[in-house]
């Protein structure tokens, strides 16, 4: 029997897509050249973190602990104690799930200056299945006081976030996606932690997206515009601390909010809903994964399947307009 | 003392100043500080024995007053703590306050022995003795498990087991990157070694040949609920560590002289990290506590506190006598 499952919605043909890991790899090397405190700690993930060049250039500053994530994160805390700026880089699923207690106790509770780089996060590993997805990371990590959680949405933002993380004194989690994304930010864009970015003005409905879903929200806004709906598009690179003001303004000025994330809806969706309910109650719809493990499928297909295709997002937005 | 002031980063925290105070001890501890420079081995041993006994005298009263604590495992690790802080390590209250990058590092991985650590810090002059009266009290810096954000001398917040060794490996790697000779010490429980994360870190330290890393295991043979051997046996522990690339030194962990000798051998000539297999007794040296699993976190009654003080005062008296004989 042939499949009745629709193919992923094709992106506009003229788009150039980027793997944000390339931007991460170039930037971490640049940062390491300027700051000798910077080291990377990996779990046999030199290749998947695209750190082959870094390792060649900085062999002493590339600490590969092998397949041992608890050790990896604890070592990161110890390196920070010694004044280093460790970037602990591993697949998001193993980094956050396997080493969650080390992240909580050794890094965040101890307030150590460790950068946690979740590579290929969300459902990037697609058909490798839910064991390799890290759709829980936003939800888990945002319960930890004092951590900053960032999901850049394009290569330039990835570079800016890596540079910022190296300067910032405190624990940071950064998602670095391998899913192809176009440049979504303007050339003069400056990443400001904790600040939403209004990519599209609009007063009918607000689409709040983060990381890989930002481009999907922009495409959905185009579809809505064709139907005469002015959708505001907020890119929310920082999941924590959340830009409460931007969310409250959206709740006040538009007729509802749709959150879109490559994660469990208790991540960005939960964070936005709480701000809305506590400050200016308004309709919120959360797109993402909802109390279920993903079925088998590629990353792009899974996002479409879970209502995060441009048309899926637009359809959900329309429900808020009654 | 400045040690009662909160870290700048946590200016919102209220420490000892406005908290409940536990009943005062029978007498305040002696802030003995480090073994004086130039002390003979006998003088050093006497100083450390006196300090360890002071710590135990105070710690048992703290647990009695607070109605909670882990006195058995605190008494077994006290000699190691005192030996490190007051003699072996290159560390001082000033170095801690100034965050001297070349200070030796120490992690109490068995964080439930916090009271022994706090009391050692008081005897060493790192925190004010009166702060001990806030143990476990609302807003105190003295949590049931040590918190880095609350006490300058605490290098890593611990409590969940199996965390300290990986952190110490990171500290030792940082020292190596700096080309520094500073050493890193970590104190582990034996039951704690059932946590798999330790074995990840044993592998890494062995592979990296971190010769300035010293792990001591407090081999008191008892975990919270039963004997380690009856729960998930560690033996042959020394062989395991040798197989993981460590130099193993076995000592009587309740003998400060033996501990001094063991630490004097670091770094090992072999270039390997050192594992001090410290044979101890839970509850040492108090007769009714020794080697009894009940004293993992049992709280002594007023009579039992008094009994412990009587026995510990006899130890102090014997140290005095020995000093008189040798001087």
Write the topology of this structure:
The complex is a heterodimer of chains A (322) and B (327).
Chain A: H1 20-34, E1 38-42, H2 52-57, E2 62-64, H3 69-81, E3 85-91, H4 92-98, H5 100-109, E4 115-119, H6 137-141, E5 148-150, H7 155-167, E6 172-176, E7 197-200, E8 205-209, H8 214-226, E9 231-235, E10 238-240, H9 244-253, E11 257-264, H10 268-279, E12 284-289, H11 299-308, H12 310-321
Parallel strand pairs in A: 1-2, 1-3, 3-4, 4-6, 5-6, 8-9, 8-11, 11-12
Antiparallel strand pairs in A: 5-10, 7-9
Helix pairs in contact in A: 1-7, 3-5, 8-12, 9-10, 11-12
Chain B: H1 41-66, H2 71-88, H3 93-97, E1 105-108, H4 114-123, H5 164-177, E2 184-189, H6 196-208, E3 213-219, H7 228-231, H8 237-243, E4 247-252, H9 256-264, E5 274-279, H10 302-326
Parallel strand pairs in B: 1-2, 2-3, 3-5, 4-5
Short recap of the structure:
The complex is a heterodimer of chains A (322) and B (327). With 322 residues, chain A is an alpha/beta fold.
């Amino acid at each position: 029997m042939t499949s009745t499952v629709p193919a992923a919605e094709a992106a506009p043909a003229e788009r150039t897509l980027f793997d944000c890991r390339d931007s991460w790899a170039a930037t971490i090397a640049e940062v390491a050249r300027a700051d000798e405190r910077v080291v990377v700690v990996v779990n046999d993930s030199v290749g998947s973190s695209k750190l082959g060049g870094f390792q060649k250039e900085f062999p002493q500053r590339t600490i590969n602990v092998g397949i041992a994530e608890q050790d990896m994160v604890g070592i990161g805390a110890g390196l920070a104690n010694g004044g280093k700026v460790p970037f602990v880089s591993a697949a998001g699923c193993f980094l956050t799930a396997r080493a969650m207690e080390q992240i909580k106790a050794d890094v965040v509770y101890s307030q150590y200056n460790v950068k946690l780089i979740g590579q290929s996060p969300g459902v990037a590993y697609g058909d490798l299945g839910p064991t390799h997805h890290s759709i829980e990371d936003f939800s888990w990590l945002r319960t930890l006081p004092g951590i900053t959680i960032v999901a850049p949405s394009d290569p330039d933002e990835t570079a800016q976030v890596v540079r910022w993380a190296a300067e910032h004194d405190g624990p940071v989690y950064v998602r670095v996606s391998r899913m192809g994304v176009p440049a979504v930010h303007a050339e003069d864009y400056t990443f400001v932690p904790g600040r939403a970015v209004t990519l599209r003005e609009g007063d009918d409905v607000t689409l709040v997206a983060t990381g890989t879903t930002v481009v999907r929200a922009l495409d959905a806004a185009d579809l809505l515009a064709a139907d005469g709906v002015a959708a505001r598009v907020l890119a929310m690179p920082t999941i924590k601390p959340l830009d409460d003001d931007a969310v409250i303004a959206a709740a006040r000025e538009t007729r509802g909010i749709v959150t879109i994330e490559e994660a469990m809806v208790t991540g960005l969706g939960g964070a936005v809903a709480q701000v809305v309910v506590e400050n200016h109650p308004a309709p919120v719809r959360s797109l993402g994964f909802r109390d279920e493990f993903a079925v088998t499928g590629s990353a792009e297909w899974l996002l479409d399947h879970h209502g995060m295709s441009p048309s899926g997002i637009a359809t959900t937005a329309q429900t808020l307009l009654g | 003392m400045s040690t009662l002031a909160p870290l700048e980063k946590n200016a919102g925290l209220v420490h000892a100043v406005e908290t409940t105070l536990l009943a005062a001890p029978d007498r305040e501890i002696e802030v003995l500080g480090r073994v004086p420079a130039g002390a003979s081995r006998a003088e050093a041993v006497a100083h450390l024995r006196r300090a360890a006994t002071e710590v135990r005298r105070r710690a048992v009263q703290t647990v009695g007053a607070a109605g909670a604590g882990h006195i058995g495992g605190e008494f077994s690790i006290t000699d190691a703590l005192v030996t490190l802080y007051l003699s072996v390590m290159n560390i001082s209250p000033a170095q801690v306050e100034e965050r001297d990058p070349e200070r030796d590092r120490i992690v109490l991985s068995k964080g439930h022995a916090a009271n022994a650590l706090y009391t050692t810090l008081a005897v060493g002059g790192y925190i004010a003795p009166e702060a001990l009266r806030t143990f476990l009290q609302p807003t105190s810096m003295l949590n049931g498990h040590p918190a880095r954000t609350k006490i300058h001398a605490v290098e890593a917040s611990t409590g969940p087991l199996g965390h300290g060794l990986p952190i110490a490996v990171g500290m030792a790697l940082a020292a190596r990157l700096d080309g520094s000779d500073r050493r890193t010490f970590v104190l582990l429980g034996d039951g704690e070694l059932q946590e798999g994360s330790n074995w990840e870190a044993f592998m890494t330290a062995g592979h990296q040949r971190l010769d300035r890393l010293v792990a001591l295991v407090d081999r008191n043979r008892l975990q919270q609920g039963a004997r380690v051997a009856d729960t998930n046996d560690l033996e042959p522990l020394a062989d395991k560590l040798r197989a993981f690339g460590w130099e193993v030194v076995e000592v009587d962990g309740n003998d400060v002289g033996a501990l001094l000798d063991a630490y004097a051998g670091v770094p090992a000539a072999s270039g390997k990290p050192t594992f001090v297999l410290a044979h101890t007794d839970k509850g040492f040296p108090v007769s009714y506590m020794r080697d009894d699993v009940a004293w993992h976190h049992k709280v002594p009654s007023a009579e039992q506190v008094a009994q412990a003080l009587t026995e510990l005062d006899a130890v102090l008296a014997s140290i005095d006598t020995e000093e008189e004989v040798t001087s």
